[in-house]
Every structure is written in structure tokens, then in C-alpha cells.
Amino acid sequence: MAVIVDAHGVILNANPGFERYSGHPRRAMVGRRLTCLDVDPLHGDISRALAHCVARRTSWQGALLCRRADGQPVHQQGVFQPLETWPGEPLRLLVTLQDITDLHQSAQHDHAELERLEGMLSGLPGVVFQLCETARGDLAFHYLSDGLQALAALSSRTVMESAESLLARVHAEDRGALTTSLAQSAVSLDPWTLEFRLDTSDGIRWVEVRATPRRGPDGVTEWDGVMLDITTHKREEQRTRRLVSTDMLTGVLNRRAFFDFGEAVRAHAARQGRSVPLAMLDLDHFKTLNDTHGHAAGDLALQVFATTCRDCLRPYDLFARIGGEEFAILLVDTSPEAAWAVLERLREAVEAIELDVKGELLSLTVSLGLAVIPPQGSLEFALSQADRALYRAKHEGRNRLASAPGYPEPQERTGT
Ligand SMILES: Nc1nc2c(ncn2[C@@H]2O[C@H](COP(=O)(O)OP(=O)(O)OP(=O)(O)O)[C@@H](O)[C@H]2O)c(=O)[nH]1
């Protein structure tokens, strides 16, 4: 509908559609102010639109809330247009109003739907995101649900403004894997899946990401995905792995872990053409200690012995209980000569133990058999050689080191 009004908003003329859409008889409205259609006739948007056009002599357009003659509110899209006038002629405005109630209702419905969806997404146990990589390789988050605050103590808005604010928190050791896996997914368009750590003020959080990529015509790759907090699950997994690889009595590695980790150490050294010194250790006369002082005293001796040995070694040397009172050591990044010296010091440290059993001080000694795993050799074979050397150490009087054939003896090292 359209009306012509003067500078005070008084209706001078109205088209036939006016009657149909406003419900007011056309003739009755001529001479009345247009503001009477507004739900707020004194201070509503129609008053403001009129004031705008009169003051600036430019058009105005925007949404208005009006009331029909029967009292029904109607949302209108209004355009107020000053008409051309001759100099001296009074100002007149052409006002067109279009009923947008249906559009408004559907927008309101969409808005409610969107709010419902937002509420649902922020309630999910994770972060829903849309990540975008431009053809130049720049990353930007186009969407992040609210869960990010709980996951990374960062607001979605901050990370949408700068993806770097989140990427900078990825644990240094995991950044390479993140970049590589994302690049692979961008090239192959296979799903992007990764587990990585985030450094947060609450400590390390483990995150699992799963996202589906697609490529736009402009070469941009977009991933729709979800980030899940798997910290609890990871801690549980690490605890289980520790339990599976740990000897319950002494807390050192068990036989199975020794072979698993030992194989990795061997393979690493072999790639660099280096051999790895290895030792088998067995407490002397342990049966006598058990039989004389009881099994509990034996257990205590094993615990003190294990702690003493562990303290003599570097953190990354492998030390494991591989049988009852049998232990094994793999010395990482150590020459056979240096290994002999380390193990001799260890033997002395064990000899210095004073075990307090019900007020009686008991001493312990250990015999050691040494061998090396050559670059082409196997862990099992070297262990059997160390075992034979250990047998020799026992045979030669215990509380001593003996080495497998070919192992540099101390005399050879010192040249004496
Ligand atoms: N208390 C305790 N004893 C253990 C454990 N595992 C094995 N043993 C005992 O360790 C003893 C090993 O004895 P032997 O193999 O005869 O060796 P030994 O008495 O140390 O003699 P040598 O090795 O020749 O010096 C046995 O009595 C086993 O029962 C354990 O977990 N706790």
C-alpha cells in the first residue's frame, strides 16, 4: 500500500491497497496522521522515519510494527521517499508499506531453530567446528561451538578471530603430526582424524579430532568436525599400559616390557650401526635369605635392590625384572667399556646395601653377566650370552661381573 503525506505526516492521499491492508477506510484516513498506524504512535518508528526524511531530505527504509484497524499487529517493510517539489512548494513524502508478517514469522521461527541448535551444540560433550584452509594454506575457524571454553579455556570468538590462538596451544611434540595429518586430509580428502595434546592452564588435555573435508571451487578446503576431550580415557589408557608393563613388586619394567622396549632400542641403535650393551643380574644366595628370614624379607630385598639399581642408571636405560630374582639392563647410547664401569659401580652400590630385617642388618650381593647386541644381532641371543656370562660370574665366586666372549674386558680397556 502507498500513501502521500506532508512534512507533518498528515495523509494527503492513499491508494486502494491501503484500505485492504490497513483495514481503515481510505477516505476516513485522509487528514489523519500516518503515525496513528504505528503501535507506538508518539515515539514509534514511523515518527522517526518522518523526522529523518524531513530533516535530511533523503529517503528512509526499514522495518515497522503497525496495527491494523482490527487491532492486529502487522510487520511492514516501509520506504519513505521525499517527492520532487518546485522551490517554495511544501514537502511531500511517498510512503510505501509492504506486509512482511509472514517473512517476520518465518525469520523468528528460523531464529528459534538456530537458538535451539546452538543450545544443543553447546550441550554436546565436545566442540563442533568448521575449519577452512585457503589455497595459500591459511587456517581459519568459521564456526566453533561453545564447548571450546571447557576444552581449551578459550572463547569460540577469540579462536574464530585467530586460529593461531588455539594452534599455539597444541603441545610442541604434536604440532608436526597435526600439520601433516591435516595436509594429507586436504590432499586426499580422506577424513581427518588425530589425537593430540593441548597445553592449558589446567595442565595437558588430550583431544581427539574427527572431521570430514570437502573442496570448494575456489580451491578452499573445509572440514566439518568435532573435537572431543579424551583426557580421562587417555590417562586410564596410560595407567593400564603402565600396569601391563610394570612389575608389581618392584615397580620396574616387567619381562614383556623389557622385550618390547628393548627391541625398539636395538632397532634404533642398529639403524645407526651401533651395538647395545646388555647385562643379566642375579642376587647371590637369595634362596638362603628367603629360607632364613622369610619370604617377606626376600620381597623387601628385591624392592631395595631394584631401587638401588634404578638409582645407578640413567632414566632412559632399560631396567627390568625378567624372572624371580633375575633382572636385566639395556644401557642406551653407551659403549661396552662405559657399560662395564657403570655396572661395576652398580655392583658396589648393591654390596653397600644394609637391609634392616627385624633389627638385623643383612647385606646383599649381585652377580652380573655382560654381553652386547651387535648391529645385526638379536636381543634374545645377546640375552642368552649374558646368561652364560652370569653363570660364569656365579661359578667364579659371585659378587662380580663376567662378560660374554668378545666383550672388552677391563684389562683391555685400561691396556693393563
Ligand atoms: N621373596 C621372594 N623370593 C623369590 C621371588 N621370586 C623368586 N624368589 C626366590 O628366589 C630364589 C632363587 O634361588 P636360586 O635360583 O636357587 O638362587 P640363589 O639362592 O640366589 O643362588 P645363586 O643365584 O646361585 O647365588 C628362590 O628361593 C625363589 O623362591 C619373589 O618374588 N620374592
TrEMBL record:
GO molecular function, one term: diguanylate cyclase activity
Gene3D superfamilies (alphabetical): 3.30.70.270, PAS domain (3.30.450.20)
Protein name: diguanylate cyclase
Cofactor(s) needed: Mg(2+)
Segments forming domain GGDEF: 274-406
InterPro entries per record: Diguanylate_Cyclase, GGDEF_dom, Nucleotide_cyclase, PAC, PAS, PAS-assoc_C, PAS-like_dom_sf, PAS_4
Superkingdom of this protein's organism: Bacteria
Annotated Pfam families: GGDEF (PF00990), PAS_3 (PF08447), PAS_4 (PF08448)
Enzyme Commission (EC) number: 2.7.7.65
Reactions that this protein is recorded to catalyse: 2 GTP = 3',3'-c-di-GMP + 2 diphosphate
Top enzyme class: transferase
CDD domains tied to this protein: GGDEF (cd01949), PAS (cd00130)
Residue segments, region Disordered: 397-416
Protein species of origin: Halomonas aestuarii
Domain PAC: 190-242
